[in-house]
Design brief:
Elements: E1 5-8, E2 11-15, E3 21-25, E4 46-48, H1 52-64, H2 67-84, H3 92-109, H4 118-124, H5 126-143, H6 150-164, H7 168-189, H8 198-215, H9 226-235, H10 237-254, H11 260-279
Antiparallel strand pairs: 1-2, 2-3, 3-4
Helix pairs in contact: 1-3, 2-3, 2-5, 3-6, 5-6, 6-7, 7-8, 7-10, 8-11, 10-11
Length: 284
């Protein structure tokens, strides 16, 4: 591989075997090098292949921030992908790297941002929040800088955003909307849901996927079973009415039309969590 552009001592642009432009990172990989010099492959630590629309932004970011911060971001992203068992949108290499850079610089200056959604993030996005805590631990171990716990929540939202392939503004809305939907269920049935139960956890999981479909304007796959749908609506009248409230709420917030298929499965999940709550059942 030959050097096409030198961004700094630790980052260069090149092309791979398929003639696709790549960004190559490695300690000292660009030091005293020139355009068209061969890249020392033993110095390569990471190769980034980003969409053309994002490549320029990432190059500029790599040019401006410390090399180590890019490595920290990559480590967090790889860890998140493994923990969640899914690929993340590649734009997270831009958004999370940029965020970590500003978070570290803010901390050095003694400037702290409060995360107004921290409670909701910890409650509804526990895996992503743990990833955020892991990132804070990494920064502390490597830089001896202890980021505030609020940053674990901000990092979690970047992970949520990349996992759902959506917009950051939508990710910011989701924790609050999930809390509001759960409150609709609570108030409709006049119960306190057991947040330690498996059924509550399953309900929250369903809501997260439901909200992901809503913000991406995707429909639940239809099974076309009208008889099943009619049966659920007859047997779970109050639960379906509760789902109708949720439908109106989501439409008012996102303009999303909740399909009948989605309504039925939402009704089923509401019915299960209410029945188990009223029976005091924490079992599987």
């Amino acid at each position: 591989m030959k050097i096409l552009k030198i961004m700094n001592n630790n980052a260069v642009a090149s092309k791979d075997d398929t003639d696709r432009e790549i960004i190559v990172l490695g300690k000292g990989i660009g030091f005293k090098k020139h355009i068209n010099d061969e890249i020392d492959e033993t110095s390569i630590e990471k190769i980034f292949r980003l969409p053309d629309a994002s490549k320029g932004q990432f190059e500029k970011l790599v040019e401006e921030i410390p090399y180590e911060y890019v490595k920290y971001s990559d480590e967090v992203i790889q860890y998140a992908s493994n923990v969640l068992g899914r690929k993340l949108n590649k734009n997270i290499y831009i958004t999370l790297t940029d965020h970590l850079n500003f978070a570290i610089e803010r901390q050095k200056q003694g400037v702290h941002f409060k995360n107004a959604l921290l409670w909701e993030i910890k409650k509804f996005y526990q895996e992503e929040y743990k990833i955020g805590l892991k990132a804070i631990e990494l920064i502390k171990n490597e830089e001896n800088i202890e980021l505030p716990i609020d940053e674990a929540g901000f990092i979690a939202l970047h992970i949520v955003n990349a996992a759902m392939d959506g917009k950051m503004c939508d990710s910011l809305n989701m924790p609050t909307m999930i809390k509001d939907i759960i409150n609709i269920v609570r108030y409709t049935f006049g119960v306190e849901l057991d947040e330690e139960s498996l059924w509550y956890e399953r309900f929250v999981t369903h809501l997260k996927f439901f909200m992901q479909r809503a913000v991406n304007n995707e429909c639940y796959p239809s099974d076309g079973d009208k008889e099943f749908h009619d049966s659920i609506k007859r047997k779970a009248i109050k639960e379906y009415a509760c789902a109708e409230k949720i439908r109106k709420y989501v439409h008012s917030k996102l303009g999303y039309e909740v399909a009948e298929e989605e309504m039925i499965y939402l009704t089923v999940h509401i019915s299960r969590v209410i029945r188990r709550t009223e029976n005091g059942d924490k079992a599987n």
